Prior knowledge:
mainly alpha, MetI-like fold, 12 helices, flat
Amino acid sequence: MQLRKQLNRVPGYEVANHRIDRWWWLVLAVVGIVTALACIQPDPYWRIIRFVADGIVVTVGVTISAFLLTLVVGLFAALGRLSKNNLFRTITTIYVEVARGIPLLVQLLFWYFAFPSIIHSIGRLIHFEPFENYLANAYLMAILGLAFCYAAYMSEIYRAGIQSIPKGQNEAARSLGMSKSQAMRYIILPQAIKTILPPVGNEFISLLKDSSLVSVVAVADMTRRGREFMAAYFIPVETWMMIALLYLVMTLIATRVVSWIERKTQTEER
């Protein structure tokens, strides 16, 4: 261990030592399996890939959009739970407990079917025509549903990261004349974010897999496109094996990217 630390101080050694993550071979192996199936037996495997290609784009788009919104909402929820204002703390605590207590699938169904009905009722009550004629956008509702649920879990990750920073850091910042918001923005949060990178990465991977649930609310993601292909050609084994492999490729790539970001952050800290 001591030898490794000393070698890491040698210019160029650490970069060369960590240039390639050895677990990329697993990604390449799965990609190789997908490629081999598509080349050896184009019908149906290559046909399945072509059919669900647009669903892959939708899956990635919904996941990234929901994750970015999750990061923002989760941060505000965490700050609310740490606030000394009883009203903010109560509201955010209720939100976190409710969002974590209801299954994600139920929340997605609520956002797509129940939320528009609520908007219609409000529109009729206040005689506001745009609300009365409101039509739910499946993609937007899916993103909101995923973000609403995952932001509750993300807020707890943020909160744990913020509370892990020694109180002396905040006191030192305040002694330098910073306000509470400045101390949080420039001193506490940058350190907390480095601490919470691993669980945040895990949340992204979980969100990527759970995005398959949006297929139940009329979003043409990869899972829904797989269902459509199976219904059209009645080959369930080949269809779902290929869908599973494509999801595996995406999650493995996401895992390796998260690992790279973690290593990059640790290297900068040294």
